[in-house]
Amino acid sequence: MTSWAEKYRPKNLDGILGNAKAVSELRAWAMAWEKGRPEVKCLILYGPPGVGKTSAALALASEMDWDYIELNASDQRTAEIIKSIAGPASQVSTFSGRRRLVILDEADNLHGTYDRGGAAAILRVIKNATQPVILIANEYYNIEKPLRDACRGVQFRSIRAQTIASLLREICRSEGIECEPEAVMHIAAMSGGDLRSAINDLEAAARGLKHLRLEDVATSERDVKASIFRVLDSIFKGEDSRSALEATYQLDESPEDLIHWIDENLPIVYKDRELAKGFECLSRADIFLGRVRRRQNYTLWRYAAFLMTGGVRAVSSKVRRGYTQFRPPSLWKRLGQTRKARSVRDSAARKIAAHCHVSTSYARSELLNFVGALLRSKKTGAAVAASLGLNIEEIALLTGSYPTTKKVQKLFEDAQKIIEAEQIAMIDRGLKIVDREIEKPEDKAMKYASVSKEIVQEKRQRSLFDF
Description:
Radius of gyration: 32 Å
Shape: extended
CATH class of the largest domain: Alpha Beta
Distance between the termini: 51 Å
Order of helices and strands: HHEHEHEHEHEHEHHEHHHHHHHHHHHHHH
Number of helices: 23
Strand order of the largest sheet: 2-3-4-1-5
CATH superfamily of the largest domain: P-loop containing nucleotide triphosphate hydrolases
Helix content: 55-70%
Largest sheet: 5 strands, parallel
CATH topology of the largest domain: Rossmann fold
Number of domains: 4
């Protein structure tokens, strides 16, 4: 489902609110490109988050009928990647002859391993560009000076609450929602000039409603004030340790989750000695979290919470300013990517545990590699897969292969043949016993059904293969 912030993103520059001067500069720059090559090849759109900088760049491309390519902080922006992607895009137009706009979002956040050499590469791209380039930043002076000197800055300012409220009313009308003026004004005032946040807050409060009242948006106020990103700002940039701890009081995150957020973003903000001390505080907090899990004594959470918030803030020797692009925990992303593999692993472990009469955890930790070795053997592979009833994904996981490989598919097919042969043999054995004991045809049919049922039950209970 498309978010309202995306759904109502302006399609042209006339839809950009509250920054008429910046829009005028953008249009003049674009017209200079249409007439030839302008004096300045690159603009830097800078200003607070959510005021329409990225929307303005995309609206400009739409209004001028330009193609565009965008790189942001979620992408790796090393010198090599910028050279291979943004470089050609900034020098060659599309096949149809249209211009191509190159957009680099969060240009003031070109730091760290993933962006190493990125600023210098962007500077080279701008100098060699034959297509328009736009950099987007929250903090203009966080951009390296050589890069600033090669571009022209266009400032976007916070949007007035009255202007935001008028747009929110328009969105409510488009969504068929009746809204009280006080409700939208409350959301607009709480946004602090951030239009994107205001639209997100409106969506959170009004989704599923036909009439939006002031009391409906009052419940969403806590979420606006206590978002995880604002808490991280207080932890890393707050005035003191007490304010860092108090920022978490209304946060809907457990200490076990919050520590992952802090662990992920600590290297972004702190360096050298501060970084080492910060991780020491986190490690001590993790010790208390471990005691909570073992003892189920949740009063120890208070010590973990203070160490990971006030403790981390206390190791900083200065008050930091400016915008920082915080990242969600990469551990959660990795767990999401491996969820299916872990599910297949656990399923195979349960089958092995049932067959060997051991616990699932023991099978998972001690027997998976052993069974994998048996599966890889030509002599025992098919028989083991048949006796355990492994599916093709479980076979692939245990053998360290992929389900699409011929070896895994053949092993699975051979196992299925063994299972079918055993079922036929069992049924034939049961029918022979029936033929010797029964003479009447009607009794024989009833006995066949009974024997077949007994055979199925016997197959489920007996051990078909001994390692």
